[in-house]
Amino acid sequence: MPHHQSYPVTLRGGGGGRVVFCWPQFYPDNISRVMDVPGFEAAFGIHPSQAARVMSRDLEKLGMLLLSPKVSALGEIGLDGQNGVDMGKQEALIRQCLAKADSSKPVILHIRGRWGRMSS
């Protein structure tokens, strides 16, 4: 199953965890499907591999989702030095996502091959 389609369709309580949605085209239409399962939380972000194709409507939807008290975190967002996407576009995407963030919620970072870049 492709990475971006691998989130569980049916969640069962008991173990719990955080389901991360980072490809806007696969955001669920109804987050209650995730949030109503005991022990599970949801995080929403935009993966750095999407930086070259992200649209304003994706950022608008992310902003609306992050306003929900049912969403526990922003993520995953970050920098990926191995995905072939322009680093300037990835950096711009991080800034745009962080501008939508609620400062009381954690941020889930995706950093691959760019730790030094994140500290500058």
UniProtKB/TrEMBL annotation:
<dbReference type="GO" id="GO:0016788">
    <property type="term" value="F:hydrolase activity, acting on ester bonds"/>
</dbReference>
<dbReference type="Pfam" id="PF01026">
    <property type="entry name" value="TatD_DNase"/>
</dbReference>
<dbReference type="InterPro" id="IPR032466">
    <property type="entry name" value="Metal_Hydrolase"/>
</dbReference>
<comment type="similarity">
    <text>Belongs to the metallo-dependent hydrolases superfamily. TatD-type hydrolase family.</text>
</comment>
<protein>
    <submittedName>
        <fullName>Uncharacterized protein</fullName>
    </submittedName>
</protein>
<dbReference type="InterPro" id="IPR001130">
    <property type="entry name" value="TatD-like"/>
</dbReference>
